[in-house]
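User: Reviewer 2 asked us to show a designed sequence for the structure in our supplementary figure. I'm pasting the structure tokens here. Could you produce the per-position amino acids so we can include them in the response letter?
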């Protein structure tokens, strides 16, 4: 058998890059052990929920048409609800993406005249259109739902005084985004989110708190529903789909609120009773089963990248040693050549489309050119190794995912290789 070094050489990783990566990895055994412990805990949580709901192969059968009495769909939703320690769940291929799931959760539980509050600053880009912060057709603003926002303090913590002032008799829902997304603020831990929920409910116990959980699932042993969130929402082509879900979103939480979501997703009077699953149930179950270990692989990749690039003197968020609450890593490469080389490396390491070269391009909704690297089995899946960067100062690249730690590692080694070949780093 070839040695490990030989097989990396055959994939065009040079001895210098391999040696450097090896030195960095050798220092991460404790971090990786902690990530493995969390994955083990979450794996047991998911298996426990599957056993409790007596998952069986009849649940993998396809429904078509209206999808009445889809036992697999009902069991999948019970498994999600139990894993999140919530009363109910809506887990559907008809929820086309994370933005859609969030839209349904908001639009279903807000009425004209109500106000939505974000106590954690500006939400994710696509939510600006949904809420109507950026005027958009069909936004909540067009339906008479008002929006208020309280920015974080300069140190990234909650501005409790302003949050208290912002809550009024019209406030109906509070939306909290767990992940920093593509902003520079820190990602919140579930514990921090719990403190914020306790604070707003201390002012008005009837407020509905929704957490945008995208990229956060299974990163910790608890989820926002464990600390008082009424609704928790995410995408199945991120962590909880485990790389196998080809589409979908989930909403878990209080039963009455989930029912509102179902009436909004399908139609008043129909609710959860319709929605064929077209043979996707098995992928949803199996992906959810794999999600704790897939998320662990992505997290190891993020920690490895942070430590490699930090060692080389680049700015990294989060840094190499801080605790993690989502799977996103940013690296400030400081030059257009740097971000392009990084993305070329991620692309070249992919199992799919490794032979294409990503190039910066003008994208709708962005004011500068953007370069994206993705060689995914599922289009746009960001639990698979992917990276993107706007070509503008400070020339930071954001990357996430990796269905296995070994693939994430190869991607990062290949990014280093491309930078090394262009003399952008010295090893
Ligand atoms: C990805 C993401 C979304 C939107 O999900 P899509 O599936 O891309 O529509 C919303 N919020 C956060 C924090 C995200 O990371």
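Assistant: Here is a per-position design you can include in the supplement:
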């Amino acid at each position: 058998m070839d040695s490990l070094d030989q097989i990396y050489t055959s994939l065009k990783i040079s001895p210098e890059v391999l040696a450097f990566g090896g030195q960095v990895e050798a220092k991460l055994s404790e971090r990786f052990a902690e990530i493995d412990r969390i994955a083990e805990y979450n794996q047991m949580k998911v298996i426990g929920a599957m056993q409790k709901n007596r998952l069986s192969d009849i649940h993998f059968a396809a429904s078509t048409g209206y999808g009445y009495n889809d036992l697999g769909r009902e069991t999948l939703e019970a498994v999600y609800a139990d894993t999140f320690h919530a009363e109910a769940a809506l887990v559907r291929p008809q929820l086309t993406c994370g933005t859609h799931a969030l839209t349904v959760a908001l639009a279903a539980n807000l009425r004209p005249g109500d106000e939505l509050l974000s106590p954690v600053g500006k939400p994710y880009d696509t939510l600006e259109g949904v809420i109507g912060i950026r005027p958009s057709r069909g936004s909540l603003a067009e339906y008479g739902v008002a929006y208020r926002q309280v920015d974080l303090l300069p140190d990234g913590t909650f501005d409790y005084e302003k949050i208290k002032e912002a809550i009024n008799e019209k406030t109906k829902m509070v939306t909290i985004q767990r992940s920093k997304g593509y902003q520079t603020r820190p990602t919140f831990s579930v514990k921090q989110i719990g403190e914020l929920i306790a604070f707003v409910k201390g002012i008005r116990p009837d407020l509905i708190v929704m957490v945008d959980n995208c990229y956060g699932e299974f990163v910790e042993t608890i989820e926002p529903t464990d600390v008082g969130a009424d609704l928790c929402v995410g995408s199945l082509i991120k962590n909880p789909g485990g790389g196998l879900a080809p589409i979908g979103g989930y909403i878990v939480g209080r039963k009455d609120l989930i029912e509102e979501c179902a009436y909004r997703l399908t139609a008043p009077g129909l609710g959860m009773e319709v929605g064929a699953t077209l043979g996707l149930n098995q992928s949803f179950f199996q992906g959810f089963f794999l999600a704790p270990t897939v998320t662990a692989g992505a997290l190891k990749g993020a920690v490895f990248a942070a430590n490699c690039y930090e060692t080389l003197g680049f700015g990294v968020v989060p840094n190499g040693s801080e605790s993690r609450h989502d799977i996103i890593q940013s690296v400030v490469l400081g030059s257009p050549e740097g971000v392009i080389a990084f993305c070329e490396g991620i692309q070249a390491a992919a199992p799919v489309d490794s032979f294409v070269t990503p190039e910066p391009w003008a994208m709708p909704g962005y004011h500068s050119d953007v370069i994206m690297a993705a060689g995914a089995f599922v289009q746009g899946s960001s639990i698979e190794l992917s990276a993107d960067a706007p070509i503008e100062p400070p020339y930071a690249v954001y990357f996430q995912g990796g269905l296995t730690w070994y693939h994430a590692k190869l991607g990062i080694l290949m990014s280093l290789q491309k930078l090394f070949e262009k003399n952008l780093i010295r090893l």
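For the response letter, you might also mention the following. The longest helix spans residues 281-311. The first strand starts at residue 88 and ends at 92.
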